[in-house]
Write a structure and sequence with these properties.
It is a single chain. This protein is of the alpha/beta class and about 375 residues long. It has two domains: about 10-240, 3-Layer(aba) Sandwich (Aspartate Aminotransferase, domain 2); about 245-365, Aspartate Aminotransferase, domain 1 (Alpha-Beta Complex), CATH 3.90.1150.10. It contains eleven helices and eleven strands. The chain has helices spanning about 10-30, 35-50, 60-70, 90-95, 115-120, 140-145, 200-210, 230-265, 295-305, 335-340, 355-365; strands at about 55, 80, 100-105, 125-130, 155, 165, 165-170, 175-180, 195, 285-290, 340-345. Strands 1-9-8-5 form a four-stranded mixed beta sheet, with helices on both faces. Strand 6 (about 165) and strand 7 (about 165-170) form a beta hairpin.
Length: about 375
């Protein structure tokens, strides 16, 4: 039995009529840029995320970029980021002329190491960017204590619906950045993003920056960019948003079922399963195991038609584009080891139990 890593058609079919209806209404109105559709989306997202202000933008990458721009970060500044994450977390820092300062991650939750953040802070540190990786919240208590007055930008690209001790991710730092890339727990029909904040002044700045720094008709007190979320994506997200909690519950059930299946297959001592830490609200945007002979296992599963993926095969401090920063192999060993061992398995909410069993059986046949 073939099992896809992700099949978005299973999510789409039940919502097809509702989605096509809002697309048709928007096409009839011909109001594609900002307007009521975006305003309504931002209001509804703020209620779900329990924040005062939300600003819809073009992508998760641009959400991070505009957040840094709102702080005036540029050449000579440093931003602390984990090295084990998607490229955008560091790419936006470099793009503004600032320096990404890479820190290692915790071996259990894959989020940035609080001890290493403490050591990395310097007089040039202008922001700290925790990434709530794979859908599990970082240790925000520890991070906020270490950060002090340094602004914290939460990278929530993979963590819609996650919380830390009851507080939604994106509501604890100065700003939060979300992605609505189609594969996310809440995804649109292309690229889309969102910035959250509880600071009214920051929100006003973000809204100007997403419109080329415009404060009034053709008046530009600052240079921003074209970071406006499409009204089309906003309307699609408004249809999908009420269902996101149910989809996340499905992922959590599948994660629990995987634990049972791996134990029943006698794999508990062979494969390291992800741990949903107490008070972290893991949403399993990815279900990531650690496995010996990972690349061989991946090839074996692919031969059986079982989808899997590696997030991420090369830590950011070792990427060629950051060679000038002088990091070397072995410097951030936890991230480097994770890059050699992690493997993401299918976990989306519409999977059947037979498909989950097929995934574990495929792994069991490899290690027998």
């Amino acid at each position: 039995m073939a099992v896809p890593l992700l099949d978005l058609t299973r999510q789409y079919v039940p919502l097809r009529d509702d989605i096509l209806a809002v697309i048709d209404d928007l096409c009839s109105s011909q109001r594609f840029i900002l307007g009521q559709a975006v305003a309504d989306f931002e209001t509804e997202a703020a209620e779900v995320l329990e924040v005062e202000h939300t600003v819809g933008v073009t992508s998760g990458t641009d959400a991070l970029l505009i957040a840094l721009m709102a702080l005036g970060i540029g050449r000579g500044d440093e931003v602390i980021v984990p090295t084990f994450t998607f490229f955008a977390s560091a790419g936006v820092v470099h793009r503004l002329g600032a320096t990404p300062v890479f820190v290692d991650v915790d071996p259990v939750d894959y989020c940035l190491s609080i001890d290493q953040v403490r050591e990395a802070i310097s007089p040039r540190t202008k922001a700290i960017m925790p990434v709530h990786l794979f859908g599990q919240a970082a240790d925000m208590d520890g991070l906020m204590a270490v950060a002090g007055d340094i602004p914290v930008i939460e990278d929530c690209a993979q963590a819609w619906g996650a919380d830390f001790k009851g507080q939604q991710v994106g509501s604890m730092g100065l700003m939060g950045a979300f992605s609505f890339f189609p594969s996310k727990n809440l995804g649109c029909f292309g690229d889309g993003g969102l910035v959250t904040t509880n600071d009214a002044g920051v929100a006003a700045n973000l809204r100007e920056l997403r419109m080329h720094g415009q404060s009034g008709p053709y008046l530009h007190p600052k240079v921003g960019g074209n970071f406006r979320i499409d009204a089309l994506q906003a309307e699609i997200l408004r249809v999908k948003m009420p269902h996101a909690a149910g989809w996340i519950d499905g992922r959590r059930r599948h994660a629990a079922r995987y634990s049972e299946l791996f134990a029943n297959a006698g794999l508990s001592d062979t494969v390291e399963l992800p741990e949903a830490l107490e008070g972290r609200g893991h949403t399993f945007n990815q279900y990531v195991i650690r496995a010996p002979r990972r690349d061989e296992l991946r090839a074996h599963l692919n031969e059986r038609g079982i989808g899997c993926g590696v997030y991420y095969p090369l830590s950011l401090h070792l990427q060629p584009c950051f060679a000038e920063l002088g990091y070397r192999e072995g410097q951030l060993p936890i991230s480097e080891q994770a890059s050699r061992e992690v493997l993401a398995l299918p976990v989306f909410g519409e999977l059947s139990d037979d498909e989950l069993c097929e995934v574990v059986e495929g792994i069991a046949t490899f290690y027998r």
